[in-house]
Write a structure and sequence with these properties.
CATH topology: Rossmann fold
Radius of gyration: 19 Å
CATH class: Alpha Beta
Largest sheet: 8 strands, mixed
Shape: globular
CATH superfamily: Alpha/Beta hydrolase fold, catalytic domain
Distance between the termini: 51 Å
Number of helices: 8
CATH architecture: 3-Layer(aba) Sandwich
Order of helices and strands: HEEEHEHHEHEHEHEH
Number of strands: 8
Strand order of the largest sheet: 1-2-4-3-5-6-7-8
Length: about 250
């Protein structure tokens, strides 16, 4: 009896080990600075598509790491880039101060460096790398489309938008935008203008605006604003978009 129990425990432990999510803290250089990151790896040998994840104004939270793990389980090498150099908070006032003090040029360089870091990984297909960001990170995700023409897919979740036609002309990658119709930070009029400008330039862009949804509606850890129904719909669109552009 004891041998059977031991054997069952051993098998269970073995199965847990091989099914466990492979993730680790990493660091890479951005100019002269060391940038921290969270890297989650998919199962299987060979080269995989990869994603850069850019965090909200809270910093590199557990929610961001969980998203990276989910993407890894779907077959992506997922890298969360830490723009705050280890600082994280759940207090809006502190988050606002962190966001305001962030050097925009440095942060954009960090995202580019995250892309360059992924290209050095032996399990990454360098021709299938994308970027996704939320809130503050959504704005930097958009900038990644401008700064890194080699990207194959970019997702902007209620991020700051630009109407600079010269900057938008540099975008070569398909772009997906996720927004809420009740967003007071990124209002619908700004979203429509942004979409029109991109389409006028012949860019590949798809925008979804969800009713009864405000800013940051996708994060279930937010005390207010989370919309479970539209979040599920948004994730469906995101997964399909990335599948179509990074796995084909």
């Amino acid at each position: 009896m004891y041998r059977k129990i031991f054997l069952l425990l051993f098998i269970s432990s073995f199965l847990f080990t091989i099914n466990a999510q492979k993730s680790k803290e990493v660091s890479f250089m951005s100019n002269q600075d060391t940038v921290l990151g969270y890297l989650s790896l998919p199962k299987g040998e060979g080269k995989h598509p990869a994603l850069i994840l850019v965090h909200e104004w809270w910093g590199l939270t557990q929610w961001m790491k969980d998203n990276a793990d989910i993407f890894a389980k779907k077959g992506y090498v997922a890298l969360c880039v830490d723009l705050y150099r280890g600082k994280v908070t759940d207090k809006p006032d502190e988050a606002g101060k962190l966001a305001q003090s962030l050097n925009q040029e440095m942060a954009n360089n960090d995202v580019v460096s995250a892309y360059n870091y992924l290209k050095t990984q032996s399990n990454v297909d360098v021709n299938r790398i994308g970027c996704i960001g939320w809130c503050m990170g959504g704005g930097f995700s958009l900038q990644s489309a401008i700064n890194i023409p080699e990207l194959k897919a970019v997702v902007v979740c209620y991020g700051h938008l630009t109407t600079d036609s010269t900057k938008l002309s540099k975008i070569q990658t398909p772009l997906l935008g996720i927004f809420g119709e009740d967003d007071k930070v990124i209002p619908p009029d700004a979203v429509k203008q942004f979409e029109q400008l991109l389409k006028a330039q012949g860019k590949s862009v798809k925008i979804y605006e969800y009713p009864k949804s405000g800013h940051a509606f996708m994060n279930q850890t937010n005390k207010t604003g989370y919309n479970k129904i539209t979040t599920k719909e948004a994730w469906t669109k995101i997964y399909a978009f990335l599948e179509g552009n990074l796995k084909k």
